[in-house]
Amino acid sequence: MTKKTLTLLIAVPALTWTVWAQVASEKTNKLTSISPQAMADALHAVIAADRQAYAELVDRVRTGTNPIDVSENWRETHGLPVPAQLLRNAAQSIQKEGAEFSYALRSQWAINPSHTAQTVVEQKGLEFVAQHPGQTYYADEELGGRSYFTAVYPDRATLPSCVDCHNRDPRSPRHDFKPGDIMGAIVVRVPLEF
Ligand code: HEC
What we know:
The chain is of the alpha+beta class. It has one domain (about 35-190). The chain is about 45% helix and about 15% strand. The chain has 6 helices and 4 strands. Strand 2 and strand 3 form a beta hairpin. The radius of gyration is 25 Å and the shape is elongated. Bound molecules: heme C. Heme C binds near residues 55, 58, 83 and 155.
C-alpha cells in the first residue's frame, strides 16, 4: 500500500464523518422552541413599529393647513386618538381574543395615572431604562400565583409632536421633555407557565 493510498483511506472516512457529524449536529440544534426573551423582543418589535407608524401619521395631520384634532376626545371632535389610546385599544382587544401575553405603556411622568408602575418589576424597569439609554430591562416576576417573563423597553420621544403634546398637557407632571428623551416604557409580559 502506497503512502498516498493510506492517507486517502484515513482522510476520506474522517472527512465524511466530520461532514456527517456537522449535519447531524445542525439537525439537533434545529430551533424547536423560542426563548421568552426572543418572544418578548419579537412582540416588542411589532408593537413599537406600529406605534411609530401611527405616531408619524398623527404628527403630520395635527399640524398643517387643515389640521385634524388628535386627542382623547377624538370621537366627539371627529379627530383621531392619541398614540397611547391606540396601543391600549389594541392590547385590550388582543386580551379579549385570549392572548396569553400582554403589553402596556408605563411612565414615571404619566398623564394618565393608570400608566404608572403597577409592580415592583415595572418600577425597577422604568428606573433602569431612564438611566441606561437604549437598554432593556428583563426580569422574571410572579403575579397572581403565575410566573411571567417581563421585559421593559424604553419609549422615546421620536417625533416633535410627542414632546409638544405632553409638555402642553396640564395633567402631565413634566413639561420639559425634549426630542429623543425617554418618556416611559413599553412593558411586554410573557407567561412562563401554561
Ligand atoms: C396629541 C397628543 C399626544 C401625542 C402626539 C403623543 N402623546 Fe403620549 N399621551 C398623550 C395622552 C393624552 C396620553 C394619556 C392617554 C390615555 O391613556 O388615555 C399619553 C400617554 C403616553 C404614555 C403613557 C404615560 C402617560 O403619560 O399616560 C407615554 C409613555 C407616551 N404617551 C409617550 C408618547 C410618545 C413617545 C409619543 C410620540 C411617539 C407620544 N406620546 C405622542 C398625548 C399624546
